[in-house]
Design brief:
Helix content is about 40%, strand content about 30%. By secondary structure, it is α+β, with helices and mostly antiparallel strands. Strand 5 and strand 6 form a beta hairpin. The protein is elongated. The two termini are about 30 Å apart.
Length: about 190
């Protein structure tokens, strides 16, 4: 895990590529003392759907790596395991469609970069607060937990609050997932103040 330090936030937000995306987001206000903890620590309240999808994601990555290694040694066994994995994916996909979908929050507009995000909240979050956030892509391309420091929370015309925060803790592999998401959407990116 790496701790990100906020340096000259106004310049950084203008330099970093940002995208607007519809993501499933949950947050909770946390104390400054736990803001540097691992964002996947069991002391944080991680939504059940998030844990399930994150574990399935990790399993898929490990399985894909092992299958590539096995394919170099024994292609026939690798093919059988690949077919087994396809069958398992169909089963988990149907479970996802029938059970998990009912647990998921509705995707909301999030402006995202590798170093921070802004999102809408129903209540104002005090400036300089620390929050724990889980982000899930609706297409299951990533499921990420982070801690962040709130830079601003201002009311907008829709009666909701636009909250901006920079990441305090972010796992290196999660940073790569965010970088890939931002890079794949650069044609639709927006730079914000």
């Amino acid at each position: 895990m790496e701790a990100l330090q906020h340096q000259n936030g106004e310049n950084e937000r203008r330099v970093m590529s940002r995208i607007d995306a519809a993501l499933r987001i949950n947050y909770q206000i946390i104390s400054e003392e736990v803001a540097l903890n691992d964002p996947y620590d069991s002391n944080f309240v991680l939504p059940r759907y998030f844990l399930l999808l994150a574990e399935l994601d990790q399993f898929d990555h490990a399985f894909t790596y092992e299958l590539e290694q096995l394919n170099q040694k024994d292609q026939q066994i690798a093919r059988i395991l690949s077919l087994f994995n396809q069958k398992l994916n169909l089963i988990t996909g149907s479970l996802y469609d029938s059970i998990v979908q009912t647990m998921l929050p509705i995707p909301d507009q999030v402006n995202l970069s590798e170093t921070g995000l802004s999102f809408y909240t129903e209540q104002e979050i005090p400036d300089h607060s620390y929050i724990h956030i889980t982000l899930s892509h609706p297409g299951n391309f990533f499921h990420i937990a982070v801690t962040a420091h709130v830079v601003y929370s201002r009311e907008e015309e829709n009666g909701r609050f636009r909250t901006g925060a920079y990441f305090v803790t972010l796992h290196p592999q999660d940073r790569v997932k965010l970088a890939n998401a931002v890079a794949s959407n650069l044609g639709h990116s927006e730079y914000t103040d």
